Protein backbone atom coordinates (compact mmCIF):
# COMPACT_ATOMS: atom_id res chain seq x y z
CA UNK A 1 0.00 0.00 0.00
CA UNK A 2 1.37 3.40 -0.94
CA UNK A 3 0.59 6.71 0.79
CA UNK A 4 -1.43 7.78 -2.28
CA UNK A 5 -3.92 4.92 -2.00
CA UNK A 6 -7.06 5.67 0.04
CA UNK A 7 -7.24 3.78 3.32
CA UNK A 8 -10.57 2.63 4.68
CA UNK A 9 -11.36 3.41 8.32
CA UNK A 10 -11.29 -0.32 9.07
CA UNK A 11 -7.83 -0.73 7.49
CA UNK A 12 -6.55 2.33 9.37
CA UNK A 13 -7.88 0.93 12.63
CA UNK A 14 -6.18 -2.42 11.96
CA UNK A 15 -2.87 -0.66 11.25
CA UNK A 16 -3.18 1.29 14.49
CA UNK A 17 -3.82 -1.92 16.43
CA UNK A 18 -0.73 -3.48 14.81
CA UNK A 19 1.32 -0.47 15.93
CA UNK A 20 0.06 -0.84 19.49
CA UNK A 21 0.77 -4.58 19.57
CA UNK A 22 4.27 -4.19 18.14
CA UNK A 23 4.93 -1.27 20.48
CA UNK A 24 3.87 -3.32 23.49
CA UNK A 25 6.29 -6.09 22.54
CA UNK A 26 9.08 -3.53 22.16
CA UNK A 27 8.45 -1.87 25.51
CA UNK A 28 8.45 -5.27 27.21
CA UNK A 29 11.80 -6.18 25.61
CA UNK A 30 14.03 -3.31 26.80
CA UNK A 31 14.33 -0.73 29.55
CA UNK A 32 16.42 1.74 27.50
CA UNK A 33 14.00 4.65 27.03
CA UNK A 34 15.92 6.28 24.14
CA UNK A 35 15.99 3.00 22.22
CA UNK A 36 12.31 2.34 22.88
CA UNK A 37 11.27 5.82 21.71
CA UNK A 38 13.43 5.68 18.56
CA UNK A 39 12.07 2.27 17.65
CA UNK A 40 8.48 3.30 18.46
CA UNK A 41 8.81 6.28 16.13
CA UNK A 42 10.06 4.00 13.36
CA UNK A 43 7.27 1.49 13.92
CA UNK A 44 4.61 4.20 13.91
CA UNK A 45 5.98 5.79 10.73
CA UNK A 46 6.09 2.49 8.85
CA UNK A 47 2.77 1.12 10.02
CA UNK A 48 0.76 4.32 9.80
CA UNK A 49 2.33 5.32 6.46
CA UNK A 50 3.16 8.88 7.47
CA UNK A 51 6.10 11.09 6.55
CA UNK A 52 7.20 12.16 10.02
CA UNK A 53 6.79 10.87 13.55
CA UNK A 54 7.94 12.88 16.54
CA UNK A 55 7.68 11.83 20.16
CA UNK A 56 7.65 14.63 22.69
CA UNK A 57 7.80 14.03 26.44
CA UNK A 58 6.83 16.51 29.12
CA UNK A 59 9.54 17.40 31.62
CA UNK A 60 7.89 16.96 35.03
CA UNK A 61 9.96 19.68 36.71
CA UNK A 62 9.59 22.46 34.14
CA UNK A 63 6.49 21.35 32.27
CA UNK A 64 8.34 21.87 28.99
CA UNK A 65 7.88 19.49 26.08
CA UNK A 66 11.14 17.89 24.96
CA UNK A 67 11.62 16.16 21.60
CA UNK A 68 12.94 12.70 22.49
CA UNK A 69 12.57 10.81 19.19
CA UNK A 70 11.99 11.61 15.54
CA UNK A 71 11.97 9.76 12.27
CA UNK A 72 11.19 10.83 8.73
CA UNK A 73 11.64 14.00 6.75
CA UNK A 74 12.36 17.02 8.87
CA UNK A 75 11.15 20.46 7.90
CA UNK A 76 14.68 21.70 7.08
CA UNK A 77 15.08 18.70 4.72
CA UNK A 78 12.11 19.78 2.61
CA UNK A 79 12.78 22.30 -0.15
What structural keywords apply?
79 residues, alpha+beta, 2 helices, 19% strand
What this model shows, in words?
The protein is an alpha+beta fold and 79 residues long. It has two helices and two strands. It has helices spanning 9-29, 33-48; strands at residues 52-58, 65-72. A two-stranded antiparallel sheet has the order 1-2. A hairpin with a 6-residue loop joins strand 1 (52-58) and strand 2. The longest helix has 21 residues, at 9-29. The two termini are 26 Å apart.
Q: How many DSSP H or I helices?
A: 2
Estimated helix fraction: 40-55%
Q: Indicate the multimeric state.
A: single chain
For the sheet with most strands, the description reads: 2 strands, antiparallel
**Sheet with most strands: strand arrangement:** 1-2
Q: Outline the low-pLDDT stretches.
A: none
Mean pLDDT equals: 83
- C-alpha-based Rg, rounded: 14 Å
SSE succession: HHEE
Short description:
The chain has 79 residues and is an alpha+beta fold. The protein has 2 helices and 2 strands; from the N terminus they run ααββ. Helix 1 runs antiparallel to helix 2.
Amino acid sequence: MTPEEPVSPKDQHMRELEVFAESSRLVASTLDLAEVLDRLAGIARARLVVDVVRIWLRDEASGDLILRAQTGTRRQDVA
